[in-house]
Task: structure prediction
Amino acid sequence: MLCGIDEAGRGPIAGPLVVAGVILLEDIVGLNDSKVLSEKKREKLFDEIKEKSKYHIVFSDAKLIDEKGLSFCLKNSILEIINNLKNFCDEFLMDGNTSFGIDILKHKIKADATIKEVSAASILAKVSRDRYMNKIASNYKEYEFQKHKGYGTKAHVEAIKKYGRSDEHRYSFKLKALGEENIGIQKSLF
Result:
């Protein structure tokens, strides 16, 4: 059996990185890369995936991303998923172009659109992250996280200019729009 792995939240300037691993136990109709599905369709599939699979979801918050870096958080999350699901499958496949130095992890570009287990992982990661951003939005009204989910939209950058960053923001992600210099952790995003 195959465990598909994918992430959501690699590029935002606020909120967690979420990585999910999924082993499907039953067929599910309509799976695809979460980015091409409507929010309504993702939400419907989310519950069905959880009912018909073994899965594990890992959150890395902004503070950990700042302290350890995205690559560390991704690799650590993948290792946690492998450790939690290794007794239920014999193969692990990650969407993307790297195996993060993990011997038993295979990778494939666009696997989230072509391999059903990775599509399912993509949906679990995206919906989990979106729900988290919606949940915290009321505590950070000035940033309107429910609208952009922490991505660097013009409105989000303007809110940071006005209010500064919150504890949900990634301080290591430097923004050209704010006149911040790249310190080598992450390429400037704007």
About this structure: The CA atoms of residues 142 and 163 lie 8 Å apart. The first helix runs from residue 39 to 51. The chain has seven helices and five strands. Confidence is low (pLDDT under 50) at residues 183-190.
